[in-house]
Amino acid sequence: MLDPFGKKALEYLNSVGIESLNEFLSIIPARIDVNTALERVSWINTQNYPPDDIINLDRTKGELYDIMTFYALLGALVVSPYGLEMELVKLTNLEIYRSRFEQRIRETKKEILPSKQTEKLNNLVNQLSIKVKAVTKNEIDQRDRIILEKILWKDELDIEDRENKELKFKIHISDFFKFIGDDLKKYYVKGGYVYIQKGMLINAWQRSFELNIERAVNKIYENRDEIFQNYYSELYHRLNEIARKYFKKRLGIIEKASAQPLKFDLFPPCIKIALGGVPSGLRNYAITVLLTSFISYARICPNPSKRNVRVKDCIKDLSIIEKEILPIIIDAGNRCNPPLFEDQPNEVKNVWYHLGFGYTSYPTLEESGNSTWYFPPNCDKIRANAPQLCKPDKDCRYIRNPLTYYLRKLYLESRKRSEESEKSE
Ligand code: SF4
């Protein structure tokens, strides 16, 4: 199985009776031990290329086994999405799938008949999560082929270079725009497909793979309570050790999001709208439910490592809540029309309730846990309860919860800093 996000992979999982991602993640711990899952990433600290037994895992142990070892890592990333661990999983698995893909392409060359080669290539690319087909021998007009060869080969390339430059694949125009670019001028286009070389196909697929990892982690994160298991926590911590060793230089610049001063400019649109104050019909949801949960988790526990975490698990006294979090919530409430807390003074007790202290005005830290500390609602819940708050921007495409929007932006910001510092060295 080549692409764990491809249609074929999903059909395969359905065919063995697995209907949802969470169901799949719930059976993995009984089938794949932590060390086995880690073999997909641990090689990075000792060698540049994945070992053959990992590249061939789908053949030696079967497709289901192979795909389970990969999804085990995705389950672990949900413990704390967006960090060096995600970088590590992306990097190592891109290399595994790229090597596997190259190996399988080489194997198609053993077929003597061109039609058989095309058939095998098509079987291979059909498994990808992007719309690609293999190009048949006479598909490009003879006249066009001569012109293209002149442009691509420039007469001086050796056989291997020529093979790499051959237009062996065609990608659907919609996926071309998504993963390659927006300028068709330099390409041969026919029947809704853009003709490309092997290297371009691999690059396009890499982009889709990275995006799919983010999408999958966000999808699992949506129902992450269901998979909070020691197995995934342990796997996450071991991933963290390997990542810290591999990315030594970037440590200190890229760190996982932890309790830290809030960066308002990185908040998602719905939170910015709530902060600006909203009309009466929206006030309670926007301020007491959404803003209270978002600001409190973002400030003091952006990556809760267990289910039903309490405020007292994350801070030692209430000063952060009293001096930082409550003023933000009260100010936003006062910007509502009419002002929320002037209109409904008891709503402050409801804020404490949503912070997990029960319905009260002056709690102590020890009282945290008297009610549930509400986690920020997922985007689909926000859209259902308060559609006026959801005005998605381009970054909303990747996430399914406002808190992961913020974690992702924090991560991208620190990654940019790290890249700049590497350049300036
Ligand atoms: S998509 Fe989600 S994060 Fe973005 S504005 Fe809507 S609710 Fe907020």
Layout of secondary structure:
Layout (H helix, E strand, L loop, with lengths): L6 H9 L5 H11 L2 H9 L9 H4 L1 H4 L2 H15 L6 H25 L5 H12 L6 E3 L7 H12 L5 H7 L3 E4 H7 L8 E3 L2 E4 L1 H25 L7 H17 L22 H7 L4 H21 L10 H4 L4 H16 L5 H4 L3 H8 L24 H7 L16 H23 L1
Whole-number tally of structural domains: 2
Number of helices: 21
Query: What's the quaternary structure here?
Result: single chain
Bound ligand species: iron/sulfur cluster
Q: How many beta-strand segments?
A: 4
Q: What is the global morphology?
A: elongated
Distance between the ends: 41 Å
Strand order of the largest sheet: 1-2-4-3
Uncertain spans:
none
Q: Roughly what fraction of the amino acids lie in strands?
A: under 5%
Radius of gyration: 25 Å
- The appropriate CATH architecture of the largest domain is Up-down Bundle
Helix percentage range: 55-70%
SSE pattern, N- to C-terminal: HHHHHHHHEHHEHEEHHHHHHHHHH
Helix/strand structural class: mainly alpha
CATH class annotation of the largest domain = Mainly Alpha
Largest sheet report: 4 strands, antiparallel
CATH topology of the largest domain: Transcription Elongation Factor S-II, Chain A
Average pLDDT reading: 89
Can you walk through the features of this model?
With 425 residues, the protein is mostly helical. It has two domains: 232 residues, Transcription Elongation Factor S-II, Chain A, CATH 1.20.930; 167 residues, no CATH class. The chain contains 21 helices and four strands. It has a four-stranded antiparallel sheet. Helix 3 runs parallel beside helix 13, helix 7 packs antiparallel against helix 8 and helix 15 packs parallel to helix 19. The longest helix has 25 residues. The radius of gyration is 25 Å and the shape is elongated. It starts with 6 loop residues before the first helix and ends with a helix. The site of iron/sulfur cluster has 11 residues, from helix 14, helix 20 and helix 21. Iron/sulfur cluster binds next to helix 14, helix 20 and helix 21.
